[in-house]
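Tip: read the tokens left to right.
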């Protein structure tokens, strides 16, 4: 039987999500080398200018170019998202696989630890860490990463248990395949699609969590720009200069929407059960 082609480009949700996500990635990558104006270029004489040819998105209350800050904020958001999701995958997925393949005391202890982490969401954990060590991007990343580890551990365990219940796993065990070989040859490849889709979801959650923490003053610290901090600064100007809040708010909304559409498209393409239902 010929393998099914995914044809991701023909899926509208994936295509729209890829475009929205790609635009943010492009803006963040460009900010490494170029921004229209220096992000720390304070110009009091140019403060609160409306969008114009010189400043496409206007300037903030310190005269800084909003487009430049938005691009640099995209870069910071991408770094935090990749780091926190990467930590969650690297530590959480093996923990979940091990709990599924070694039921007993280890599985019970790890699951109770995961439940304990779920009792403290990322924002609450960041507040607790900030109370002890002070606010900062490192502490925000640590809080989001701890939450992601718990999420990926639970998702990996569920996916692994589903694979381990298949007949070919019992056949592999019957012929004496070692557990590590079963994990690498069967469990990991079959669970990879689930983890990939979950990674897009957790990336979106990380962006929202970072924006929320920066809004509270617990995330990215000045003078580095953050979308959440830009929203906080625009709060008092929402009725007199609404464009101050439109740009960062739209950036957060579109990026999170793009990631969710991307994950939805990947799920539709990689889940054979959905494909089978659509063939009926």
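Filled-in amino acids:
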């Amino acid at each position: 039987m010929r393998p099914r082609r995914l044809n991701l480009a023909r899926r509208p949700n994936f295509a729209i999500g890829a475009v929205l996500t790609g635009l943010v990635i492009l803006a963040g990558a460009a900010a490494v080398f170029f921004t229209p104006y220096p992000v720390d270029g304070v110009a009091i004489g140019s403060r609160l200018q409306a969008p114009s040819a010189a400043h496409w998105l206007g300037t903030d209350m310190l005269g800084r170019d909003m487009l430049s800050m938005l691009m640099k904020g995209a870069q910071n958001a991408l770094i935090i998202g990749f780091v926190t999701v990467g930590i969650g995958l690297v530590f959480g997925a093996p923990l979940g696989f091990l709990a599924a393949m070694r039921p007993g005391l280890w599985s019970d202890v790890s699951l109770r630890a995961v439940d304990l982490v779920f009792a403290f969401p990322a924002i609450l954990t960041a507040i607790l860490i900030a109370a002890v060590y002070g606010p900062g991007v490192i502490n925000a990343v640590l809080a989001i990463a701890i939450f992601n580890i718990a999420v990926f551990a639970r998702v990996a365990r569920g996916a692994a248990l589903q694979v381990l219940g298949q007949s070919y796993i019992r056949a592999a065990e019957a012929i004496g395949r070692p557990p590590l070989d079963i994990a690498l040859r069967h469990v990991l490849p079959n669970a990879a699609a689930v983890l990939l889709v979950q990674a897009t979801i957790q990336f979106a959650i990380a962006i929202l969590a970072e924006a929320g923490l920066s809004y509270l003053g617990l995330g990215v610290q000045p003078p580095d720009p953050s979308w959440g901090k830009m929203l906080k600064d625009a709060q008092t100007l929402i009725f007199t200069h609404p464009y101050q809040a439109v740009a960062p708010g739209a950036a957060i909304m579109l990026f999170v929407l793009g990631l969710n559409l991307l994950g939805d498209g990947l799920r539709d393409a990689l889940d054979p059960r959905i494909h089978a239902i659509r063939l009926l």
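The chain has one domain: 63-279. The mean pLDDT is 83.
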